[in-house]
User: Fold this.
Amino acid sequence: MVRLAAELIWKSPHFFNSIKERELDLRGNKIAVIENLGATEDQFDTIDLSDNEIVKLENVPYLSRLGTMLINNNRITRINPNIGEFLPKLHTLVLTNNRIVNLVEIDPLASLPKLQFLSLLDNNITKKANYRLYVINKLKSLRVLDFKKVKYMERLEAKNLFNSKEVVEEIQRTLAKTFSPGETPNVSEASEEQQTPKVVAPTPEQIIAIKAAIVNSQTLEEVARLEKALKSGQLPEDLKSLNDAIMLDNVDEKHEDVIRDDKVQADGESINTQEQKNTESVSMEQA
Assistant:
């Protein structure tokens, strides 16, 4: 990239163009930043900055004579909000083939009191709904947009459309989504967060099943997979049968314990009954 230094400005071609205006040719120098235009000493009617790598239309000094700026085939995405204060007589601005995307990004051009000819061809902004009407409504002095004359009926249509509060609010919502995508979660992200299942602690049966599988694992990958399952509490498909078997074993053990308790209780009752009978027989013999 090349700096737009004073030396470059002095050495660049300057001439009277076909409409007898004094023009400075700064085309194709790989300039990335507009600077040092004060070195022109406000001696030019037209400045041609086409075919460079300029990103922002800014850093322009006060140039009362300048009427035309040619900045096509650059990378412009932003425009200085106060550009009109420095270019009071600018009437023609060519921004063809740049990177202007949103409608509101051309709002600073409304500060140019004399702007009559504007080209935004080959910018993504031209694909926006009601693009032409928006620009016409915003730039009241505009006579030609994208090399097409602005008609009276277009002005009326633009005025009626953009005086609607709903349309203005929709444009503001679009701007908010574009410039702060990370500040407010979008609907899809929010829904995904809601659908994400919460991690539930594993049950004792699941822990037993997973630990048993870890002991019997043959590879490190299998151990890692099972440890992950142990943390999440979600059994892999191949361990669910083992978990079910453990649960059945627990049920059987509980059932056996119940039967064993019942048997012990029954044996105890029979022993008590036999002792009672023996006591009664002894009593009768003594009598």
About this structure: Residues 180-199 have pLDDT under 50 and may be disordered.
